[in-house]
UniProtKB/TrEMBL annotation:
The keyword GTP-binding does not apply. This is Putative glutamate--cysteine ligase 2. It comes from the Bacteria. One of its GO terms (molecular function) is glutamate-cysteine ligase activity. The keyword ATP-binding applies. Its EC number is 6.3.2.2. ATP-dependent carboxylate-amine ligase which exhibits weak glutamate--cysteine ligase activity. It catalyses: L-cysteine + L-glutamate + ATP = gamma-L-glutamyl-L-cysteine + ADP + phosphate + H(+). Pfam families: GCS2. GO terms for biological process: modified amino acid biosynthetic process. Keywords: ATP-binding, Ligase, Nucleotide-binding. Coiled coil: none annotated. Belongs to the glutamate--cysteine ligase type 2 family. YbdK subfamily. It comes from Labedella endophytica.
Amino acid sequence: MRKIGVEEELLLVHPVDGRPLALSERALADGHADHLQSELQQEMIEIATAPMRGLADLEADLRGHRRRADDRARSLGARTVAVASSPVPVEPHPSRGARYDWIADRFGVTARRTMVCGCHVHVDVGSREEGVAVLDRIRVWLAVLTALSANSPFHGGLDTGYASYRSQVWSRWPSAGALPVLGSVEALDAFERELLASGVLLDRGMLYFDVRLSDRYPTIEVRVADVCMDLGDTVTIAALVRALVETAAAEWRSGAAPPVRSAAALRLASWRASAEGIDGSLVHPLTGEPALAIDVVDALLRHTSEALDATGDRQRVESGVADILRRGTGSERQRAVHAREGSLSAVMLDAVEITAGRIPMGPL
């Protein structure tokens, strides 16, 4: 069974009105926060699990990290919250350091105003050759994960009209988006060298593709999901990513060719998932045409069913997906709270309590 690990980006916010607070430097200052890492803005922190095989272990590790992060925030008069963009208006404070300074200088307002929180899932691969084969075969399915995790309908005090506005913000980076079909390790290396030779990017860490092969660890990193309010949704997304990786590797071993879909077409599929989430239509990964989101999600479950059976995750994942489809994603929850309370601060504070596991994600 392949190990999986999860990174979650969280916001640090005021416990009364939900305003994001620039506290990450203080949160990381005294050496007692080894479970936390800095991010692009000082209003953000990141937690990361150890690599795990069992979903129960992954969930327990995530829960512990969320609790410790929130305890740390409380010690500074703040809370942590898993929303993918801030409903409450904020002027971000860029993190300091040579790398962050370079990025801010190079990318200007894109760097200074980007304050969105994603969920990145890492999955073991056996070799770089297998890794590239996986890259080529899972790319058409990734927009479905964006839809299932959508948790950023508000941004800068406005309803954006999107389910995952984080995806729109992130797409402003010049290296974000879908990879082409590569076919070999040599092609991947040549592709990355070509991009880095432009001088636009600082290093490989700025290759912000939807999915990428790590140069430090034998892992695939899938980067398309919004951070999820509900911890169970995070585990569901992580398990689906592992099943997609295993399914793609099995297809490669059997000699099956990857689906043919251009990066431009996948950008459109990503846009539609960002706009409509699970409430409307998605671009079907196998046909390239619109289909009801519920039918596309069902196709994803059928596509990964053998891998889910092999890991023993099928019942857990099908139940988790059914929960999302029944009560909605974080995007629906945020809009429902806003409709009831008429306050974006209330939206943020409701999300704080769900992030901490104090209230469920169920219907209001």
